Request: fold
Amino acid sequence: MKLSKKSISVLSFTIGACVFVSTAFADMALGSGYDRLKNSVKNTSAQMEKGLNNYTVEALFTLKDNDQTFLQASTFNKIDNEKQASENSTKTQYSNGETTTNYSYSDQKLSIWKSGTDDKYYVTEYPDDIDRGSGNRFDNPFNEKGAPEVEKIVDALVGNLKDYVQVEERPEGGRVYSGSLSEAQVPAVVNAVSSFGIKQMISDQSRMDRNSKLPEIDSDIFVKKVSGTAVENKAGLLENLTGDVILSGKDKSGVQHDLSLNVVLKLSDIGNTKITKPDLTGANVEKVSQSGGFSSKYAGKYKNNIIIEKDGKFVKIGERILEITSVENNKVTGKYYETVKPGFEAEYPDKYNFTFEYNPSNSKPMSFFTYTNAKGEQENGQLHPSGSGKIYLDLNIEILDNNSYRSNTSHQHFDGEFSRVFEE
Reply:
């Protein structure tokens, strides 16, 4: 499953905001039904990874500033563990009316990817001798490194807030967990952590996305309200989860803002989810070989423009340059760097500059290269041909398992498609 870079930027911020205030939500939502709900969460995660043959997961994130929708992001994911197939669609709507979508399909034989910004399907077919592994399409977060320690921290933080939850037995079986915390009930430690976390995330978001309209709240930040529900079916699986968090604070001008985040998660069609490989007859299709599809003809310089919106206009403030220095024995070597025009340094402070060696292999389902980002951190990247005289570069890749990855690139409106430079 692979999400668009811009969607990842938005979702990362949205989910990140939820994480920093989730102490209050977790304390409230778990409440007196703490052990039962925690066991239900664990059981649901374990079943999604290996127990359920197939199912559908839907998620909707809505972020508002003073009741005005800032963004809304949705994802619709079908997973078939038995057939080792998955299908994912995402859609993100922004306050300026812009909408981005993308789609992916994957099974043991091929993967298909399409971004809403590109009217083309990229298809990778896998030879029979490639071991794609058992490749669970969902990874249980409770099996991740450090999960037990996180669980202990949450356990310790629950404290006396257990009493704020209501647990109701459903006539048809299962339970409903619900509750809410008002401003006065939120512990001071949660407000302190939230204040620091939100200011940091807003700063990071503004740095990564210079066109972000998110208000820069920097004072008097507190959790105004937290509420949520969780519905468990008679099989002990959580079918619906909803959460609402309202954060209040003032921007540098002293204007009061209420940032509200609504999260809805739904697990459905258990045992009845059907995944069908898309029919690409007549569609614009480009096949991407697992070996990368590179040859010596791709050696050369490629560019695209760094563009921002300023004073109601689009302004070019610099360039991204990708140079393929050689392609030999299926190894691609090159360098990537960014230039910014004088006077625009503040608009684009973290310029990337690195060299790389990319060795795509037929013996592996996925290939990546490593590079050092502007902060000196090691990250994963990938590139492949993208039409005549074009190359697509993907950065900040998170490897999920043997079969899937996602791009977390939100680096200052990063554009991954580069065109060949024929004349300087």
About this structure: Residues 5-30 form the longest helix (26 residues). The two ends are 38 Å apart (CA to CA). The chain is about 20% helix and 45% strand.
